[in-house]
Amino acid sequence: MATRTLRKALVAVAAATVMTTTVLTATATASADTGAPRPGHPAAQKALEAHVRTGIPGVLGQVRDAGGTWNGSAGVADRDTGRERLPEDRFRIGSITKAFTSVVLLQLEAEGRLSLDDSIEHHLPGVVHGNGNDGRGITLRQMLNHTSGLPDYLDDAFFERIGTTDWPEHRYDTFKPAGLVATAVAHPPAFEPGTDWKYSNTNYVLAGMVIEKVTGASYESEVERRIVRPLGMRATSLPGTSPRIPGPHGRAYSDLHGGPGARIWDTTELNPSWIWSAGQAISTVGDLNRFYGALLRGELLPGKQQQELLTAVPVPVKEAGEGVAYGLGLYRTTLPCGGYIWEHGGSINGSLSVAASSPDGRHTAVFNANGDWGDADLEDVVKAEFCDTAQPARH
C-alpha cells in the first residue's frame, strides 16, 4: 500500500550544468560538473548492496550535491532478463506524491484562492460528515499536516484485503475519490482535530478534491502545469487510472505482505486510483532530485507559503522514533550524526522509494527498491548518505 508502515512512509531545479552518468553495472559511478571522475558515495552504495543481499531484486539511487551527480545501483531491474537498474528507470513513487499535492494547495493560497485556515466544509460541503467526523471543524492545514484526526481509508478491512490477499483480482479496479473518503468517514475519528497526530491518506485525497473544486481542473493537470512542466520533469507522470508505467522501467515485485515463503508477484501494472492524490505519481531519481532541490531552495513557493510548508508538528515517538516532525507533505528527520533533513517516502505494491534533502536544497538524494518484503526500509540508505563522514558536511 502507499504507506506500509510509518517508517516506510519516511522512506516524501537542480543546476542545468549537472551531468548524470549511466550505471552499466551493479556498482556506483559519479561525475562532477566538469565530467571529471570523483570519489563515489561508499556508505550509500554499501547500504544499497545490503538490501540486495536480503533478497530484494534491485535498488537504485542518485545523489546531487556540490560535487555533481552520483548514481548507484545494485541487483536487477528485471528478474527474468537480469537487466540492471538504470538512472533513467521510471517507478511508482507512492506517498512522495504528497509533497506535489501540498505545493499546489500552497500555490493556490498564494494566489488568494483559498486559505489554509479554511475548513474542509468550506470547500467540500457535506463530504466529511458522520460517525463523529465533521469537516466544519477541520482546517486545510490540519489536513495537510495529519492533525485532522480523520481515519485512513486504507485501514478499512476492504482495502486491507485488496492490498494483500485480494490484490490480484482488484489490481485494475477504478476508485473515485469521494468513495475513498466515504469509506474513511464510515469509521470514527482517531482524535479531535488538532489534538494529536496520525498519518492518514484520507487527508491527501481530500486535498486533491479541494484542488479540483477550487481550480475547476483535474488534479493531474494542475500538478503538471504548476510543477512538472516548469521544472522540466519530463519523466514524471500522473497516470490517473492507467495501469502502465510509460517510458523505460524495470519490474516491481511484491509478496503482498504474505510473509516468509509467500509467492512473489509482478506488480508493475496496477490502477493507482485507489491512492490518487496521496500517491499515484511515477517518476525517476533524477526528476525527484530536481523537485526536492527546487522545493527546498524556495523556487516553487513564495516566502509565506514556504514557511508554512516547513512548519512541522511533532510526530509521536511511538509512530516514528525520536526527532521526527511533519510539515506539509514533508517529514523533518533528525539525523543520528547531527542536523536534520527533509524527506518523504512511499510504498506502493512492489516499489519502495524515499526522497530527501538538506534544509538548503543543495544536497538531495533519492532511492528506490523494486521489492517490498522482509526488512526493506530505505531509511538506512538515507542516513548512510547524509551521515557519511567520508563526504563533506552538507546538512
Question: Could you give the topology of this structure?
Answer:
Blueprint lengths: L5 H5 L18 E3 L10 H12 L4 E8 L2 E8 L15 E2 L4 H14 L9 H4 L5 E2 L2 E2 L5 H5 L12 H6 L4 H4 L6 H9 L15 H15 L3 H10 L24 E2 L10 E2 L15 E2 L1 H12 L6 H7 L3 E2 L2 H4 L3 E3 L4 E4 L5 E9 L2 E7 L6 E6 L9 H8 L9
Could you provide a short overview of the structure?
This protein is an alpha+beta fold and 395 residues long. The chain has 14 helices and 15 strands.
Describe the structure.
The protein has 395 residues and is an alpha+beta fold. The protein has one domain: DD-peptidase/beta-lactamase superfamily (Beta-lactamase, 3-Layer(aba) Sandwich), CATH 3.40.710.10. 29% of the residues lie in helices and 16% in strands. It has 14 helices and 15 strands. The protein has a nine-stranded antiparallel β-sheet with strand order 1-3-2-15-14-13-12-11-10, with helices on both faces. A two-stranded antiparallel sheet has the order 4-9. The protein has a two-stranded antiparallel sheet with strand order 5-6. A hairpin with a 5-residue loop joins strand 12 and strand 13. Helix 2 (42-53) runs antiparallel to helix 14 (379-386) and helix 3 (97-110) runs antiparallel to helix 12 (303-309). The protein is globular. The two termini are 31 Å apart. The relative contact order is 0.21. Residues 1-38 have low confidence and may be disordered. This is Peptidase. Residues 48-374 form the Beta-lactamase-related domain. Its EC number is 3.4.16.4.
